[in-house]
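Appendix B. One record, verbatim.
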Amino acid sequence: MAREKQEEPAAEPAPELSYREQLEHLNPIAQPLASRKLTRKLYKCIRKAAKHKQIRRGVKEVQKFINKGEKGITVLAGDTLPIDVYCHIPIMCEDRNLPYAYVPSKSDLGAAAGSKRPTCVILLKPHEEYQEAYDECRGEVEALPLPL
């Protein structure tokens, strides 16, 4: 009995990694990368958008709505492997003048969207309920330098 009680704390989930620790797991195409402050703002805006059902998540859904001409901010996870899964999304965004940015963690991105499941890409649509936060995030994402 005493041994069972000692083993239980080991079954708890691993503590969350800090922003700096998450940067070690980035893939090579994760540019432009959002700063720590912008990452927090994006997660906050995604949480608000998820309450109003104003997000598209997953490669298939985001790709479909980008092709249909939907506007918004595309947020990609920088730790997704293999990169072939979503490496075409930034090119689609550039062709349609959509702002996009990478955040360090797909599990945090999924959690911000209100899911237990990690997600590698989210399209954040504008809505009047959180327009101010959306505009602030969009301005900062557009100010990020695009990769060459």
